[in-house]
Amino acid sequence: MDFIPRPYRHVAATVALTCFSIGLFSAHGSHLIDRHHAVEDAREAAAALEDTQTRLDVSISKAEQVVNSAKGLEDESDLAAAADALKASIVDAAAAAEEANDAATSVEIVTEGVTATSADQYVDETAQAAQEIEIEADITTDDLADAQAAVTDLAAVLDGEVDDPDVARAATEQLESAKQAIDQVTADVETEAQSLHAATQEVQLAKDLATLDTSVQSALATTVSSTELISAVGRRVVTSSTVTAALGADSALRAAATRAQEVDRSNADEVSTALADLESATTGLAATMEQLQVSHEAWVEDVNAERQAANDTLMAAYQEKVEAARAEWKAANKKAVGNNQGGWTGKPTGVAGSNGRVAASSLCTLDFDTSHQLQCAAAEALEAADAAYYSATGRHISITDSYRSYASQVATKANKPSTAAVPGTSNHGWGMAVDLDYASATWLAKNGAAYGWVHPTWARAGGSRPEWWHLEYVATSVGGFEAPAKPDLEELAVSAFAR
Ligand SMILES: [Zn+2]
């Protein structure tokens, strides 16, 4: 068996090229050269197998990415089936790769030898297994001897004592068959991965197309309302660049929508890009519109602060004018009352009808007591007096009698012959007199002059016919209070975004 001179044996087992040079000097040169070529072939096959395994690793890694991207769309049954097929191919490939790995390892032992430590360990383990077989199976001495011989043979192989080219050829065959298996599963994985990728793209494209159509519609609707808003805002902003930015983003979204409408609908990448563009342009417009709103509303706030201040000034001046006019009106009323202490006489100017038969158009219902009517100027003046009475006492003037028709004056005269006036002569018949409760009558006798009302001298204590409850309106020449016209106030601005 020892064709290689002993000093070189170890070297030959580990360095292949050495066996070639030794062969040149050997008596059995042709045998050694043959063995050398066989070992070289085995090594090349081992290297080829390694490349194949690398390619498989890359294919599996790509296939896993395809499976992952398909996962999000797995609700589509076709896709799920393709994904399952690819997963099965990956499992097959992994198993084949493992087998090939085993083949490569055993070939490595044949062609490269192993380190002393691993060889000893391997021999020890095998010998121990043989002993265990003996104990457990009660095998014969011959069987044990065979097992021991097998261990010895293995030890020889592990020592690198391979000198049979057939052993190396067998190893090469084993490697090449492993490579073929790997090539086959790699091709399977790649085919399934391509099929799943194509199916995924098809499903993704269908989904993207559906999304694209709604996105385009929504983008166009967004630009319509944005354009309107930007136009409504105009230049009314505190930062003018917000308008420019919003206009730019609005055009960008419109352009993206137009491009999306013209996209090649069979091209998944183009559709996907158009969708991403739409989304980005939509987000961009929303951001600029938000900034525009902030800038516009700051403008509205500033402007309204100015307008409100101007309005406040106008209203303060107006209130002063009103107060002055009211003071003038009260002074005029007092003057009229001073000239007419005896009460009202005759038919009021401008009143249609006759005593007790005053036209409805010349009578006004009192706002604080709708069961009573007076001649309109008298009613208005009594309402002004009531407002003052109310703010002083918290109560309204309490009326027992006001305008009295001719028929009811006849009835009153029948009931109170001594106090009631002759029908057709009472100022109640003109809507120029009231009868009040004690508190109201006392207050109006004291304060009524400013409103044109007087407690006539004849009705006062010591008068010709004392009636503490009876007061009359005498300031028809003054009339009701007419407030000055209100100033034109500046209208406050409203945010264009509030509409
Ligand atoms: Zn009266």
Walk me through what this model shows:
By secondary structure, the protein is mostly helical. It has three domains: 22-201, no CATH class; 209-314; 341-473, Muramoyl-pentapeptide Carboxypeptidase, domain 2 (2-Layer Sandwich), CATH 3.30.1380. Helices cover 68% and strands 5% of the residues. The protein is built from twelve helices and eight strands. Helix 5 (116-137) packs antiparallel against helix 6. The longest helix is centred in the middle third of the chain and has 72 residues, at 268-339. The model is unreliable at 1-27 and 136-140 (pLDDT under 50). The structure holds zinc ion.
Please name the defining characteristics of this protein.
499 residues; mainly alpha; Muramoyl-pentapeptide Carboxypeptidase, domain 2; 3 domains; 12 helices; 8 strands; binds zinc ion
Question: What's the topology here?
Answer:
Blueprint: H1 6-14, H2 16-24, H3 29-71, H4 77-112, H5 116-137, H6 141-158, H7 165-233, H8 241-261, H9 268-339, E1 353-354, E2 357-358, E3 363-365, E4 373-375, H10 376-393, E5 399-401, H11 406-415, E6 433-436, H12 438-447, E7 453-454, E8 470-473
Antiparallel strand pairs: 1-2, 3-4, 5-6, 6-8, 7-8
Bound molecules: zinc ion.
Zinc ion is lined by residues 401, 428, 433, 435, 470.
How many structurally independent domains?
3
Count of alpha/pi helices: 12
How much of the sequence lies in strands comes to under 5%
Which molecules are bound besides the chains?
zinc ion
Kindly report how far apart the N and C termini lie: 104 Å
